[in-house]
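quick one, 68 residues, struct below
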Amino acid sequence: MKYSFNVVMTCDGCKNAIDRVLNRLGVEEKAISLAAQEVTVTTDKPYDTVLQTIKKTGKEVRSGKTVE
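---
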């Protein structure tokens, strides 16, 4: 499945924190855009698992959706 999340990120540190937790989760493919405030992931993990993993960084997730 492919998911897209709107996440408040203010710096590269925010982006790197999200990258680290998604790596630990075992996400196969991801794109993190600081400029667009968007995190897109392709994974076999459930939506809620990915959402909670991103939230563990302390970043505000404004919205999320299943893309495919």
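The first strand starts at residue 2 and ends at 7.
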